[in-house]
Amino acid sequence: MNNTKNAYFLIIAAVITWSLSGILVKSVEAGPLWISLIRSLGGGIFLLPYVFKERIYPAKYVLSGSIFMAIFILSLTLTTRISSAAMAISMQYTAPMYVIAYSFYTNKKIEISKLIVFILIFIGILLNTFTTLENSNILAIVSGIITGLSFVFYSYSLQKVSHGNLLGIVSLINIGSAIIYAILLIFNHSAPPTSLKEIGIITISGIFISGISYALYGAGLRKVPMEKALILCLAEPILNPIWVYLGKGEIPHTYTIIGLFFILIGAVIDILFNKDKN
What we know:
Layout: H1 2-18, H2 21-27, H3 32-46, H4 59-82, H5 85-92, H6 95-107, H7 112-134, H8 138-160, H9 166-187, H10 196-221, H11 226-232, H12 236-248, H13 254-273
């Protein structure tokens, strides 16, 4: 029981750290690819010594984790830049909706409590898309959906890497993601950071947000079911826009705030009524 409680605290600690990502992206002028590359490289290199602590396997899930991590960070960064931090983070946490839908499909059975959670999260998504449709920002909607889906597959891959030091696992995933970004930069010459200060901000954030926090999340996933972990992560949408507002003065759209409310209500219902079913 204590191990399970500790696992929940690890995920909460990771979520609090992640919530700082919005203010990071809004604080630098570099292109999304450069931000993602430096951030992943910073986290990967900082944790590199842990790769050699013990053998890490299965390798195929480390590879898939790198791919989905790359897609996730890039789409999250892009959504934050072209829309808002609140929009990006709330779309990230549509992830539980996809997991619930998949459970309906595999179990051939629809549970009423989970259906209610699904509907509430879906309403939250619709409200968020209203905000971006007002500005004809279709790209933000697409990148937001990709953010949520890639976070599901990243979480699944991370959970499947059953052996190895967690800091080492996260290091390899970050380095793999950085390689993918470097390849993409060959074909897309986005704007690099313009100062050492910007490089420093991105690098430090990579160590804590892309490195240590994802190791905490991975440790929690070893004791907590993925759906429950994703639901717990819904605490981040409250914190992220707050940091952005305090740091940059960006006020979320009314529809976005209401959408977040529906998503969080769905999370509360899931935690209260689906405790023993996960």
